[in-house]
Specification:
By secondary structure, the chain is of the alpha/beta class. About 40% of the residues lie in helices and about 15% in strands. Strands 1, 2, 3, 4, 5 and 6 form a six-stranded parallel sheet that branches. Strand 1, helix 2 and strand 2 form a beta-alpha-beta unit. Helix 2 crosses helix 6. The radius of gyration is 17 Å and the shape is globular.
Length: about 200
């Protein structure tokens, strides 16, 4: 295990939450993912990329014939480009993804598509389907953006069922869910390394 960790590079995961509210369960999933990687997945590092400061997509804000962007957008696009793979924590709103997440996806696809040809995983938390419909819509968007999603395992957290999954601050407190999250991250790591070896 130590030999494998020494030969494999540290993979950078850009983690994006579709919920920007305080005490967001999806930001909590990202925090938990970062903790899991630090504790038990050598070679995988999760960086939360906040999308709250992005302006609404407006091509009037672009410059240089569509190659220049507002500073917040340029900084966000640079973080997307620098990542080896992505983790989307995607709530379900009205059977779809949220507007902050769609806005982020669109900004990083303008001009040169920053998402292209990289692996990703999706996790979600919610009510009776655990946010699952957002996964399938995000996968559909990812076809055009050339994002390569892992197929399994899927993680839909039934956030309001017993035992409690999150505390009042949105932190993940359920050990079983944390273990399921770890399996998603291990799958993302393996898939990313596999794709990188093909290059």
């Amino acid at each position: 295990m130590e030999a494998a960790a020494a030969t494999n590079p540290v993979l950078r995961v850009a983690a994006i939450s579709g919920s920007i509210r305080k005490a967001s369960l999806h930001c909590g999933l990202i925090r938990a993912a970062a903790e899991v990687c630090e504790d038990s997945i050598p070679g995988l590092r999760v960086d939360h990329v906040d999308v709250a400061g992005l302006p609404l997509l407006n091509t009037d804000l672009e410059s240089d014939g569509g190659a220049g962007f507002p500073p917040a957008v340029e900084a966000f696009r640079a973080k997307v480009r620098a990542a080896d793979c992505y983790l989307f924590a995607s709530p379900e709103y009205n059977y779809s993804i949220t507007s902050p997440l769609k806005n982020a996806l669109d900004w990083a696809s303008r001009g040169t598509n920053c998402w292209a040809d990289k692996p990703a995983a999706i996790v979600s938390a919610g009510g009776n389907f655990g946010g699952g419909r957002s996964h399938y819509h995000l996968r559909q968007i990812g076809v055009f953006l050339d994002i390569h999603f892992i197929n399994k395992p899927e993680l839909f957290v039934f956030a309001f069922e017993e035992p409690p999954k999150f505390d009042g601050d949105g932190n993940l407190i359920d050990a079983e869910t944390r273990e399921r999250l770890k399996k998603v991250l291990l799958s993302l790591q393996a898939f990313t390394l596999r794709l990188q070896k093909k290059d």
